[in-house]
Amino acid sequence: MKKIFKSAKLVSFISFLFLLVVSVAFASEEGGHGGDGKKMFEFMWKTIDFAALVILIWWLAASKIKAFFAGRRQDIKDSLENSAQQKKEAEEKYKEYSDKIDKASAEIDGIFEMIKAQGVAEKQKIIDEAEKVAKKIKEDSQMRTTQELKKASDQLRAEAVILSVQLAEDIIKKNIAVQDHEAIVKEYMEKVVNKN
User: Fold this and answer.
1) What is the pLDDT of residue 93?
2) Mind giving me the DSSP string for 71-139?
3) CA angle, 77 as apex, 72 and 81 as ends, to 5°?
4) Is the dihedral of CA 50, 56, 57, 63 positive or negative?
5) Coil, strand, or helix at residue 185?
6) Is residue 14 a contact partner of residue 48, using CB atoms and an 8 Å limit?
7) What is the pLDDT of residue 149?
8) How many angstroms separate the CA atoms of 40 and 46, rounded?
C-alpha cells in the first residue's frame, strides 16, 4: 500500500512538471516565436522521457535498493553485536588468564617460600650434623691424645725402669766385688732355705 501511495505521489509530481512544461511551451508559441516553441516542446518530451525513466528505474529497483540498505543496516548491526560479543568474550578471557597468572604467581611465591624454608631447615640440619661431627672428632682426638699420653707415659716408665736397671747394674758391677757378690748370693740362699 505504501509503495502504491509513493508511486502515486511521484506520478502526480511528474504530471505537474509535464503540465508546467506544456504551459510554458504553448505560451512561447503564442508569443509568435514558432521555432522556440518547437524547441521547448522537444525539451518537454525529453524531460518527460527522463522522468519516466527515473520512475521506471525507481519502481523496478526500489525494493532491491531498500533491501540492500536494510540488509546492509542489518549486517552492520550484526557486526556491531558480534564485535560487542567478541569484546565481552575477550574481556572474560583476559580476566580468566589474568586470574590464572595471579594464581600462578601466588603458587610460585608459595613454592619459593617453601624452598627457602626447606633451604633454611637443610642448612640448620647440616650445621647441626657438622657440630655433632666436630664434637665427636674433638672427643675422639681427646681420647686419642689421652691414650697416646698414657702410652708415651708407659713407654717412658718402661724405659726409665730399663735405664734404672742398667744404671743399677752398672753401679753394682762397678761397686760390688766378687766377695760381695758371693755374700749376696749366700744371703739370698739362706733366706730361701729359711722360708721353705
Assistant:
1) 92
2) HHHHHHHHHHHHHHHHHHHHHHHHHHHHHHHHHHHHHHHHHHHHHHHHHHHHHHHHHHHHHHHHHHHHH
3) 145
4) positive
5) helix
6) yes
7) 87
8) 10
32: alpha, beta or left, given left = phi > 0 and alpha = psi -120 to 50?
left
Q: How many helices (H) and strands (E) does the chain have?
A: 3, 0
Cell 572474560 sits at which residue?
92
pLDDT tens digit sequence for 63-73: 777 777 777 77
Q: What is the pLDDT of residue 7?
A: 59
HSE toward the beta carbon, residue 43, CA cutoff 13 A: 15
- Give the separation between CA 54 and CA 19, rounded to whole angstroms: 18
Grid cell, residue 112, equals: 619459593
pLDDT score at 75:
79
**Which residue positions in the chain have pLDDT lower than 50?**
32
CB atoms within 10 A of CB 25: 20
